[in-house]
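Field notebook, page 548. I keep forgetting to write these up properly, so this time I am using the form the group agreed on. The chain and the ligand, adenosine-5'-triphosphate, are recorded exactly as supplied. Prediction of the bound pose follows.
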Amino acid sequence: MSITQLHKNDHFFIVKNDEVMIKSDIQIELLEKIIKNYCKGIETFEVEGYFIHVLDTSQGNLFYVKPIMQYSYIDFMNPLSIKVLNSISDGVTVCDCDGKILFQNDIDIEIVGIDLMGKYAKDAIAEGIMSDSISMKVIESKEKVTILQTFINGKCFLVSGKPIFDEYGELQYVVAITRDMTQLKLLEKEVKKLEIQNENFKNKLHALHNKENTKSSLIAVSSAMMQVVERVMRVAVVDSTVLIGGESGVGKEEITKLIHANSRRHNKQILTINCSAIPENLLESELFGYEAGAFTGASRGGKAGLFEIASGGTVFLDEIGEMPLLLQAKLLRVLQESEVQRLGSGKPIPIDVRIIAATNRNLAEMVRQGNFREDLYYRLNIIPIEIPPLRHRREDIIPLINHFLAVVEEKYSIHRTIESSAMKILESYDWPGNVRQLKNMVERICLLATQPEITAFIVQQELDSNPIIKRDLEVPVEIQCIQEPVVTPKFSGTLKEQIASFEKQIIKEALSKYPSIRKAAKSLGCDQSTLVRKIQKFQLTKQISYKD
Ligand SMILES: Nc1ncnc2c1ncn2[C@@H]1O[C@H](COP(=O)(O)OP(=O)(O)OP(=O)(O)O)[C@@H](O)[C@H]1O
């Protein structure tokens, strides 16, 4: 029998005073002594103060070394079991029915920080190694127990213990799973942190969204518009109802945003409803909400109306002149009582909103004709703000154009300028569609222009050459007639020289205006060969690029 016949991975215990001292690892020297004294069957040897129980279990020449104890360590200690138990990420301990720790996997030793193999749980508590023992609790209750256990190293663990019974129903082992709560606690903290971050992001997004909705980039240069802004700033801080009048597209909504942004409600939302865009029956439920089952198709839980949703904020009622008379009465009640009643409910709900209404209609005239309630008119008209049409404040036109050019640049990353002569034409135009029309026109011209500078001539060319663009541009008649201002050249020299200069100028213009020599020749009433000759004579080929 030689030591080499022992399997390299075999495990054995060395037991001293009934305590397991060494687990695993073949200790060559010690084993040599055991082998030397080897005898068949069960024998006990004392080697260097350790009691060694040697058992020949092999049919062949394989040895297992067992400690002097009744416990079947072999069951736990076989290499596969150990590998499996060491591969899981939780700590695993196994105790016997007296609370003696028979097995502790590597993770358990690592997370607890103490090797407890061979120790009695009660001793570990007495020595202050553990605050509590799961095995003792399971042994007492003979049931599954889960506790939070603190170890001497300050670590906190969630330990679940489960009893294992033998075939006679006697408690045999306690298996405990130890989960390091430090990691979980860290994760919990991390989740909390992420939740806070998430909440912050949501708030920021909400604020951004709100800002986007309420942001006012109002351009006001003319004294007429400055007066409007001054009035706006004064009324913004008080909470009264405002009625904004003015033609379509003058900026009534823009002014509303400015009022809201400068009011105490600026952190809350501003909700807009266009009274002319929603059918009467829908408008009522949108504004006032409804109770469950208020009408066929009403959603089961009922619905809050705009006044309720906008609580703390501002409600902008656009096109108030289009509000049906029946709803006007309801709105009056909202204004007077500061409360709403949902459709199908008699219960008043208090609301806290500021109402700003706008119209492009003559409400006073509508009142006279009986199409608008007089009492509502006076209730809304506490602070009237009239925005003049763009044609009455022409000083705003060029600043507005520059503003919209900047908007286009930011939105589409294209830089465009408008030549001063084109600006003049735009400035003198009447803009029946007001700022909205101007804004749309600037955006479209910028997007369609092929050159960075938009000239009056280019606009004309675009309009002339592309009927679709012409139609699409919705360009006012005045602008469709834009012509490149004719610059009369100053000539000097002999009659012949002056005629030649004039001829050169005419040909140059024709070449720049028409895409081909053929078309240019046709416009000049000469044939192509004559034109080509003249181009060469006046050396225009190098200066003018043209396609043929
Ligand atoms: N003074 C201004 N400065 C900058 N942009 C403006 C100005 N006035 C109006 N606008 C812009 O012109 C467009 C039309 O304005 P707005 O919707 O406020 O007009 P409105 O009077 O409410 O129109 P409607 O009567 O048709 O509802 C919007 O895109 C708005 O941002």
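OBSERVATIONS:
- The domain at 215-387 is CATH 3.40.50.300 (Rossmann fold).
- DSSP finds 23 helices and 21 strands in the chain.
FOLLOW-UP: compare against the apo run.
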